Amino acid sequence: SNQMLKMSPRLLLLLLIFAGFTETELASADGEYLIGTGSHDMTGPAAEVNLMGYANIKQNAAGIHFRLRARTFIVAESETNGSRFAFVNLDGCMASQLVTIKVLDRLNSRYRFGNLYTQENVAISGTHTHAGPGGYLQQSVFPHTHSFSHFIEHKGHTIEFPTLPAFTLSPGDVENAGINRSPSAYLANPPEERARYESNVDKEMTLLKFVDAATGKSVGAFSWYATHGTSMSRDNKLISGDNKGAAARFFEDWFASNSSSTAAGKPSPSAAVNIDKLVAKAGTVKATGGETCRETTSQGFRVRKDREFVGAFCQSNVGDVTPNVLGAFCVDTGKPCDFNRSSCGGNDQLCVGRGPGYPDETLSTKIIGDRQFKKAAELFTSAKDELRGKIDYRHVYLNFTNLEVQVEGKGTVRTCPAAVGPGFAAGTTDGPGAFGFQQGDTEINPFLKMVRDSIKKPSQYQEDCQKPKPVLLSTGEMFDPYPWAPAILPVQILRLGKLIILSVPGEFTTMAGRRLREAVKATLIANGGGEFDDNTHVVIAGLTNTYSQYISTFEEYQRQRYEAASTLYGPHTLSAYIQEFNKLAKQMARGERNSNASTLSPPDLSSEQLGLLIEPLGESPPDGIKFGDMKQDVAQSKDGHFKKGDRVRAIFWSANPRYDLLTEGTFAVVEMLQGGGKWVPAFDDDDFCLLFKWGVDNKTGSSLATIEWDIPNEASPGVYRLRHFGSAKETVVSAVGYFTGASNGFAVA
């Protein structure tokens, strides 16, 4: 909606990666490379906004599991006007063309002295969490709510460029963090091709480590590995970075715990523990009641402040890879689902994948995140293969709805206008879709055809072009109220020495990704005059710059499981990508630029967007109650104190968390009592053990904030309390006010 473009200065994000840079800073530095890293909160609205990924209209945000972040690195050659590129990794379901357009517009306004950052050298990629706010994609087929501006703005954050950085590259296999969720489709690929690989998923993680060579200090690490962000289920309503966000949180905390300079900020444990004294002391600590505070007060209660190290876990060819590694089972019988159709007695909704912590989805998220983190930490510690060579990039926009493609053995073929098949509606074992559909469907019943045709009957050309996919929705031929699917897509290659990053605007299946990587590597070697060789390392950065759903192989397309039914541009989509990436790779290898570059550019549809969620209109607590007062205080345990593994819970009178997103702040804090009566933050809503939940009181209609703390092993014995922060308006025209409140004290022993 038009309101989506009214960007409050409190709604921060993506320009953080560019703030504080000047050309003179770069030109004055010596050395082959310069590196900048940065991270910023992008959690967004924690209430009422539909979460992106499962297409479940009932899955609206109602709190925070842990916060989302944007993590970025920028590399540049040290000489004046040297080549550079920026890579942004969002804890979001995918990149958005609309977000990319707006960020590039801001960059163009900020850096007027030249094309410092353009669509050519900026890559914005998503981790593919299915538990982040939606509403930021501009095509009609995707959910529209009110969640856009927090992706765009940022003020006052600087990313340092250390001089003389060193880069090391380290690959290694991650065990049991992903399995193939469409194995019957994978088996459609040629046997001789499958025989070259030990697994039907890619297990390799590639880690890029950044070190300030002058000091030896590590400043960051980015890794690429393929597994879906679907450890949190389609019924979850808490904003979460899912397994990759968890891995990043664990990695950054691990690095901080091993750094002597980052020990400050955590409370000190008691030297000796006397349980009776702790219980007695806790009994003297009473709830504060609601109090007013400043807009930025909650930022001072964050546990993680001023951290310089950035650890990002990026997505790759994730199309058919699920983190639900125990497999898919029928919820009614407990037996494995049908192998070919992923259904149970013909019902797709009964077939659901199980994560390693089943039935606890937060535990599954933690386990899969931990497996990625531990491999990254191992690669980080052992990384020795230093990168050297050029920084380079190539980019082109292409209309994928009618691309002419040369395919060996088939001659000239074409891609098609976008369309999805009935297998798309069936969903996956990560999140089953609509009743009446199954993966692998190759026919549409007459009733559904009638419904389809009443919306938009596909042209005969479209039906012929998409075969064997039966067209359920011809999204590429649907333009009301605005286009339902993207037509113009970005294809981009980034180079850092021997590391080649392929920015793809969708989800490649395992085998599709392998074919693309191998084709690009072969093209680089054949055209590079010895500059590229077998040690050239190619990674796929999935869901980057925009989103166009899936890319399956031609053989997988014939099976029409979910990934194939969601391959928008027909059976030759992968061949088109390989052809166009090879063109860019040849230019890069030969040091050429495309003198006949296309003038295509994707449309900016922001002025046409329809919003389905209004701003909160103002609210007040019940009579005699203040925001921040306790509705239900911490219930003391039977023996007077809590132990590790217990859950502590309190409910506060609160307000809708959309009045202010508390970006770089927190809605929930666990405080620990220190000497002299000082309270120190021990955990906040960016910790895995602390949940912030928003809801509405059934009797009064007032907002409630529930804080739940699962006491972790690392919690020290002592006296604690729970604190809540929030903001509110009395009316729609009122100024935003800020409040806080804390619970009774309680002892942990």
Instruction: Count all strands and give the number.
Output: 34
- Tell me the quaternary state: single chain
| Percentage of residues in helical conformation | 10-25%
User: Strands of the biggest beta sheet: in what spatial order?
Assistant: 7-2-3-30-31-27-26
| Shape by Cα distribution | globular
Tell me the Rg in angstroms: 26 Å
For the record, give the distance between the C-alpha atoms at the N and C termini, rounded to a whole number.
Answer: 52 Å
Largest sheet: 7 strands, antiparallel
Mean pLDDT: 90
**Strand-pairing-aware structural class:** alpha+beta
Low-confidence stretches: 1-31, 155-163, 261-265
Strand content: 25-35%
Catalytic activity: an N-acylsphing-4-enine + H2O = sphing-4-enine + a fatty acid
Domain Neutral/alkaline non-lysosomal ceramidase N-terminal: 33-579
Subcellular location: Endoplasmic reticulum; Golgi apparatus; Secreted
Protein name: Neutral ceramidase
Could you please describe the fold and organization of this structure?
19% of the residues lie in helices and 25% in strands. The protein is built from 14 helices and 34 strands. It has a seven-stranded antiparallel β-sheet with strand order 7-2-3-30-31-27-26, with no helix packed on it. The model is unreliable at 1-31, 155-163 and 261-265 (pLDDT under 50). GO terms for molecular function: metal ion binding; N-acylsphingosine amidohydrolase activity. Belongs to the neutral ceramidase family.
